[in-house]
Amino acid sequence: MKMPSGKKRSNSRSGAPRASQSTARTIVMGVVFAALVILLIFIVYRNATYDPDSCPADTGDGLVQPTGDVAPTPTEPVPTGTPEPTPEPTPEPFEPHAVDSTQPSNYIVGTAIEVDGTRLADGETYEDDTGIYMGYSEEYSLLPGVITFRGNNLRSGGNYGTATMTQKQFGSYWTHATGSLMDPMDGAYWSGNGWTGQPLIAEWPYETRQIMTNMHDWARNQETLVEVIYPSMDGYVYFLELETGKETRDPMYMGLTYKGTGTLDPRGYPLLYIGSGYNTSRSHVSIISLIDGSVLYEFGGTGDTFALRNWPMYDAAPLIDADTDKLIWAGENGVLYIITLGTEYDEEAGTISVNPTRTVKWRYQSTNNRDRGWYLGFEASPIVWQGHIFMADNSGNLMCLNLNTLELVWVQDIEDDSNCTPVLDFEDGHPYLYISTSYHLGWRSWTTAEVPVWKIDAETGEIVWQVSYTCYSADGLSGGAQSSIALGQGSLDGLIYLSMARYPTGEGGTLLALNKSDGSEAWTMNTQVYSWSTPTVVYDQDGNGYVIYCTLGQYMYLLDGLTGTQLDSMNCSGKFEASPAVYNNWIVVGHRNGAIWGVQLT
User: Fold this and answer.
1) Minimal CA–CA distance to 379: which of 338, 438, 467?
2) Cis peptide before 231 (omega within 30 of 0)
3) CA triple 343-348-354, angle to 5 deg
4) What is the pTM of this model?
5) 531 phi/psi in degrees, rounded to 5
6) What CA–CA distance (Å, rounded) separates 248 from 227?
7) Which is it for the CA torsion 555, 561, 564, 566, positive or negative?
8) Which one, of 503, 501, 507, 585, lies nearest residue 535 by Cα?
9) What is the DSSP letter of 39?
10) Reduced to 3 states, what is the DSSP secondary structure of residue 553?
11) Per the omega criterion (within 30 degrees of 0), is the bond before 196 cis?
12) CA atoms of 87 and 18, how far apart (whole Å)
């Protein structure tokens, strides 16, 4: 026992008188007794006030975690769904520029600009009147849901929300019938939903639904409504409730074949943008009011003398810049449209109008088009990031174009007719593109051809890595990457997913999971029948990632995103070309054999 300061224990052999030792012992014992009393009082008080369920627990790593029934600190919901994107480092200043191998002059032999019907003279400069920007994907939309192909301006989505899963299986489902439409030009029948054919899914605010006069009363007035909007190849646009497949509005007949994916307005305005993908005599773009189903504006079509290719098809999904009220649409005729919409929306009055105030067109001609007869135009959907648009075209070019000057910044050779929408991703604040291409029979070979997958530096267009697959093809039914790149996030960060058609056999296909770092295979899945459908990634309540994959072999698969383990499969009695969209626990996708499917994840 340590004595009070200044006191020293005496030695009994020191010869000190016995009385002095007794006095010292008495003092020491008194001090010890007082200390024990104080300690006892402290222990009693502590036990009376200590509740182990109300105090933080030491985790052993210097952090404290709540225990027992203490509610965690509330957090704000993530408006764009889950997984919550990993916070990106402060982005580098985006200063795109070409290097020797990506100089536009290597691949493009001419461009032209038209503003409100007047073509700019050669050498005359162009500057956008307001300035287009567009930032991260989570900033793109105010409307909850999947509102364009792959969800946003970086094409990194396809899903919204979180799937609450315990069994990791497909559960209940509904179907809705679709029909067919004959094209008057060649007598071809187009049925169901085709490539790319992704449905749109939106949760409309109650107040917005009150002005939708073409919506059924039950849908308009229920507390919440998540609506599936699906332009189809039979000439109709279908409107269905997400969890039941019940019609929320009467189908809207447009009389045109819609192969591609439409787009909803990211401002939450009740506007639908759709472009037809065949019907060569009448194909065009329509902007539709979802208040009453009226067509507010149309453009495109045959007879446009500015287009170098008279093929007015619009499979690529457009983007809308909310800040500048501009519609950005890349056509298969080789024209990029930038239209200032002049939108006026008054929700209180229940009115909306589109009266374009400025129409800008940009066109190009490639060396492959001029010298080899390859097609101009865009079927893959473009990306917009910080005032620049990235477009993969039908004549083997991936382009970076400044939207505010309409000057080509860089061009990369992607070797073939590309139908693969790229995706933009970031590493340490630096942007990269992932993309692949098709194998158009006869363009490069009549037997087999190499189909690369690339990681490309979005600033310079340089190839970071490239891996290739030897694919087969068929006339009009190309092999290679007919699907688009799906980006892993959260628990799947580090992976991309892509369906490679007619590989390794002429009728077979392979789903690839590739590492972002070097393109090496994390896992693959072979199917007897190939796929043009883009895989879609969904995340559960624990942050685990899964892949939804559909093929022309009529099957829908549920796979573990990390390992490729097949968790479930479902025969849907139809050939899938279209790409699924996912909202929380519900998958929606249509097939060519005349049915839209809604499937629950459990």
Assistant:
1) 438
2) no
3) 15
4) 0.85
5) -140, 140
6) 7
7) negative
8) 501
9) H
10) coil
11) yes
12) 78
